[in-house]
Amino acid sequence: MWYRGLTMIRAVILDFDDTLVHSHDQVFQNMEIIARKMGLPHPKETVFNERYGSTWKDFVRQMWPQVDLTEWRNSYLTSMSSMKRSPPVAGVHAALDLLAQRYVLGLVTGSGKDHVIRNAINAKIDIKKFSFILTQDEIQKPKSDPHYFDSALGKLAKIGISKEEVLFVGDSVHDLVISENTGVHFVGVLTGPGTKDDFLEKGLDDHLIISSITSLPYLIQNNGFHE
Q: What confidence tens digit (pLDDT) does each residue in 161-176 have?
């Protein structure tokens, strides 16, 4: 399952949180700030971990069903100056340099644009390397939606790249679900809270689970994606 034989990868779509930057701990602390500010129940870490990795809208709906999303987003935006920022994954800059030399790069994330831009700047990630950046602000769909990738694949189709030539890289089983629903190749990284066993239990082949994005250029070149 999940390995479709030899193919030529021409585009790599990357998740953001815990794939390019370490976000889990920072996001949990930031949720504590917002909960305190809005008078919401303190998020329990076990419950937080169960829901972490979904889009920010789904996450908030699941954590605090009574909250208006617009009110929550406004509270987030006005609290940004006091929030923790996400440090880069070790080796991410060199990995992106290598990938950008060979593949069209895209960024697709369930986070909001403000979060992505702020943390990309802090982590010194060059967003110019990406042909497109799609956040939850543009996508407006949960990760379980079979059309979640429509915009990204549409942009690639315009330059002659089919979904069979696309690889998506993410850190959670939520990301794996996107690939399953869409029919694109997937590689899981272990720089987030998700474990190798989590991916294996969902049917991802062992050789498609890597420690971090630093191993990705080698994997694509040497592990069966190329003819």
A: 999 999 999 999 989 9
Distance (Å, rounded) from C-alpha 192 to C-alpha 111? Answer: 15
Residue 128 lies in a domain: yes
Using the 3D structure, point to which of 82, 98, 123 is the last residue of a domain. 82
Out of 43, 62, 82, a domain closes at 82
In a domain, 4, yes or no: no
Same-domain status, 37 and 140: no
Alpha helices in 39-157, H assignment, sequence order: 45-51, 56-63, 69-79, 92-102, 113-122, 136-139, 150-157
Residue 27, pLDDT score: 87
Place of tokens 């630093």: 214
Task: Convert the pLDDT of each residue in 32-91 to its tens digit.
Answer: 889 999 999 988 888 888 888 888 899 899 889 999 999 998 998 888 787 878 999 999
Q: Tokens 């399952």 belong to which residue?
A: 1
What are 124-159's pLDDT values in tens digits? 999 999 999 999 999 999 888 889 999 999 999 999
Return d(Cα 179, Cα 159) in angstroms, integer.
Answer: 21
Instruction: Provide the token pair at 68.
Output: 């208006």
Per-residue pLDDT, 223: 66
Mark whether 142 and 97 lie in a shared domain.
yes
Q: Which domain holds residue 40?
A: 24-82
Using CA atoms, how far apart are residues 21 and 92, in angstroms rounded to an integer?
Answer: 8
Which CATH number do you get for residue 206?
3.40.50.1000
